[in-house]
Design brief:
The chain has 11 helices and 9 strands. It has 344 residues and is α+β, with helices and mostly antiparallel strands. The longest helix has 40 residues, at 54-93.
Length: 344
């Protein structure tokens, strides 16, 4: 059996050799614990000096401290060598090739729906109208009663509207914005207001319908307003939106909040009015509904229909977007497919 001094010298040789070859931080820590830890082989011999014969203690203590110091220094050098190697490896992996071609981040753009809405608003604002807003959760009165929609009207059916309670409903059109604005400014004249926003209607979700969509409704109230003013406004609006060569057609219709009422068509943007599959060979495409404000709606807004009159028209922004870009399925506007959106 080796004497303590010989064991210490043997441990020094094996420790220095192992520490000179180690290249992993975990292995280094294992070697440090093996030789210099609380239960390490070198430390164990030094702790046992008191059990040795008196004549051996001095030599074992001197050699043991020398071996411990040399091994500690070897651990430090191995740690420094491993850390340097790791830094070099990390720098190599993160090296930037300054000769590589550059790349850029594509800038985002407005969604086609909001580009169309911005275009509509720009045209109407330039004609003297101001933008107003209103709540998407409306009272039954503002959404229906105040707009001359009687209790037995189909729009009141629970199958067509999203009711939150007996008196609260997700607005089915943006007309309540007009009514709220009239009540806020009455009896001031003129009233020129645009009401854009989201609306909600229960029903099928297919190529031409979705439960959530966008509307933009316009109102003018003043003394002496006639259907001729409405026609002139819409012809100017259509030509600025679809081009100077577009033709406008009015067809009699029915809306509870206007009288008389009309559906408004423009000559087909695909065939220039010649007739094609897009327009069903009619040469025209429907874009909005319009009419003279019903006297009852004027009264609810705080105006005397014997003294003033007005017109209103409303359009679906999704429909306008589909017509402008030749989109056949409304659902494409909500699928967030970049391959589709980037074409627009």
């Amino acid at each position: 059996m080796l004497q303590p001094v010989e064991r210490l010298k043997s441990l020094r040789e094996s420790a220095l050799q192992a520490l000179g070859e180690v290249d992993d931080p975990d292995q280094l820590e294992s070697l440090r614990v093996e030789y210099l830890g609380r239960e390490g082989s070198i430390v164990t011999i030094l702790r046992s000096i008191g059990d040795l014969p008196q004549h051996q203690r001095a030599d074992v203590g001197r050699v043991g401290n020398q071996v411990k110091t040399e091994v500690e220094q070897a651990v430090k050098e191995a740690r420094r060598r491993i850390e340097q190697k790791m830094r070099q490896s990390k720098l190599q992996k993160e090296k930037v090739d300054v000769t590589a071609p550059g790349w850029s981040i594509s800038a985002g753009r407005l969604h086609p729906l909001y580009r169309t809405l911005d275009e509509v608003l720009e045209i109407l604002i330039s004609m003297g109208y101001q933008v107003a807003s209103g709540p998407e959760v409306e009272t039954d009165w503002f959404n229906f009663t105040g707009l001359n929609i009687p209790p037995d009207h189909p729009a009141r059916d629970m199958q067509d509207s999203f009711y939150l309670s007996d008196d609260l409903v997700l607005r089915t059109q943006t007309s309540p914005i007009q009514l709220r604005h009239m009540r806020a400014v009455a009896p001031s004249l003129p009233v020129r207001v645009i009401g854009p926003g989201r609306v909600y209607r229960r029903g099928d979700e297919d190529m031409s319908h979705t439960p959530v969509f966008h509307q933009c409704e316009t109102l003018l109230v003043d003394e002496g307003i006639t259907f001729g003013h409405l026609r002139g406004t819409l012809e100017q609006f259509a030509r600025r939106l679809f081009g100077s060569g577009v033709r406008v057609r009015f067809r009699p219709s029915y809306f509870p909040f206007t009288e008389p009422s009309a559906e408004v068509d423009v000559s087909c943007t695909a065939c220039a009015g010649e007739g094609c599959a897009t327009c069903g060979n009619s040469g025209f495409l429907e874009i909005l509904g319009a009419g003279m404000v019903h006297p009852e709606v004027l009264r609810h807004g705080g105006y005397d229909p014997e003294k003033v009159s007005g017109f209103a028209f409303g359009m679906g922004i999704e429909r306008l977007t589909m017509l402008k870009h030749g989109i056949r399925d409304i659902r494409r506007l909500y699928q967030n497919d970049l391959r589709f959106l980037q074409q627009l």
